[in-house]
Specification:
Layout (H helix, E strand, L loop, with lengths): L4 E4 L4 H12 L6 E5 L6 H14 L4 E3 L4 H6 L22 H15 L3 E3 L9 H11 L7 E2 L1 H5 L3 H10 L23 H10 L1 H13 L10 H13 L1
Parallel strand pairs: 1-2, 1-4, 2-3, 4-5
């Protein structure tokens, strides 16, 4: 089987900057994949079309995640075994990212060269460890991190896209992109969700009540909902 060069595209600033600059450098790209979690903000789909039109290449959308199936499904291990799974735990790896993003991408990228948009100053522990090893020459087979090779930071990626008029408008509202119902969101992001996406906020509150009014240990959605409503009347 001929080995392909595949770009993992998330729509975030890092992977977008990586993709466009790779094209500018005439690097080999055989396929581009976007793993759709099913919980993307509407603007993300518009942005994908914009990037496709700019690069003149198709971005294949993988859509295999099923949030409701896992959210309402039963835990199979640990102290919560037999209980409804509910929201992913804030301090651990997200089961929805695993099912909707990592597994589908791992499947199509298996035995091929995979380009990942990790910036040189990536903060998340697992990513940072991979980057440190990569810089030391300890490279995970099949994975490449062009932004690390170019010594590009997250801010470099942001400036690069702004200069080209390719800034993702979601960054005007959020510091980081992801699922609209993610429990790792800040209160600031949840306020934006309440104000700008009322239908999504209503869905989030329904999940919250279905999960016995539990979102995270740190955030009480009912209190936030009351607070946001009071802010509207001021």
């Amino acid at each position: 089987m001929k080995q392909k060069h595949i770009v993992s595209f998330s729509g975030g600033k890092d992977s977008t900057a990586m993709l466009i600059h790779m094209i500018e450098l005439n690097m080999q790209i055989d396929e581009i994949y976007f793993a759709d979690t099913g919980l993307e903000f509407p603007e993300m789909y518009e942005y994908i079309i914009k990037i496709q039109n700019y690069i003149g290449r198709e971005i294949t959308i993988l859509k295999e995640g099923n949030w409701d199936k896992w959210f309402y499904g039963k835990s199979t291990r640990g102290k919560s075994k037999g209980n409804m799974r509910g929201f992913p735990l804030r301090l651990y790896h997200c089961w929805h990212s695993r099912e909707a993003k990592f597994k589908p991408l791992d499947h199509v990228c298996k035995n091929h060269i995979r380009y990942i948009g990790y910036a040189i100053d990536e903060n998340f522990y697992k990513r940072q460890r991979m980057i440190v090893n990569y810089k030391k020459g300890i490279k995970k087979e099949g994975y490449k991190f062009p932004l690390v090779d170019w010594v590009w930071t997250e801010n470099d990626c942001l400036k690069y896209l702004k200069n080209k008029g390719l800034h993702n408008p979601l960054y005007n509202k959020f510091n980081r992109l992801g699922c609209w119902c993610c429990p790792k969101q800040t209160s600031k992001s949840l306020r934006v969700l309440y104000n700008d996406y009322p239908q999504l906020w209503e869905r989030l509150m329904n999940y919250y009540y279905d999960n016995n009014s539990v979102f995270t240990d740190a955030i009480n959605l009912q209190k936030l909902n009351t607070q946001f409503k009071l802010e509207e009347t001021r």
